[in-house]
Amino acid sequence: MFRQTNLEQNASTDRLSMIFMALADPTRRHILEQLSKGDATVNELAKPFSMSLPAVSKHLKVLERAGLISRGRNAQWRPCRLEAEALKEGADWMNQYRQLWEESLRNLEGYIQKLQAQERTAKGDEQ
Amino acid sequence: MSIAIEQGDTELTFTQFLNAPRELMFKVFSEPEHVKQWWGPQGWMMPVCTIDFRPGGTWLYCIRNAEGEEHWAKATYREIVFPARIVFTDNMVDAGGSPIEGFPPRRVSVTFDGVDGKTRLKVHVQLESAADLKKLVDMGFVRHFPETLQHLEQILNSVK
Fold it and tell me: Class of the B3-128 domain?
């Protein structure tokens, strides 16, 4: 995270926020769950929901924009496929925070030592 | 001294022993002139660090590297118990301080345990809207997660 350029950073920020927005909806999570069992068409995905095809298509568009699914280009029924790589980015969100804390805590230890050495020096001067 | 790290899918715990009394540790976590000296990765400066240290108050900061790249974040204090505990939620924000949409806030609990004039520092991080991501992890969606962790271990080992 901290070694990226601004452009890359902005791109990955937008992407991550699209992933989290896509995952926030229970219907979309159900769709992903179904796709984890194998590719499926819009009709097949709509079956478990009492939802119109256009409504399901709308959810699929959100998932596709987030890169969580891809859709076949050739076949007329355009089967959907789960893209597991994108989900990895969601997990990376915690890893970035871990790196930030870990480096900060390492700095903290050095800083505390410095601070205490300064205090000792100050006390020595007083005496 | 080493830092022990436990990582789950949506939570993270750091434990570290520090050779300083917990009153000092508490101070170093709550006063901007101290926080500026240690918070952030190596090689990053903290040009902005504003702390309103009370429950409901905020900590707004910006870290900047030599190339001028900046990251802003705003934390809101939830609980402050001197000298034992500080709890806050942490948000990614833009330079104006507005949260960046779509990023789940993280809840951070910092505990200072006094042990013979030393401190056992524990930092617990939890995704606030963890349920959504955790569900997916439980269902096996995050298949590449262990690989990511492994990769990170390699990076960390090479840094050590």
Answer: alpha beta
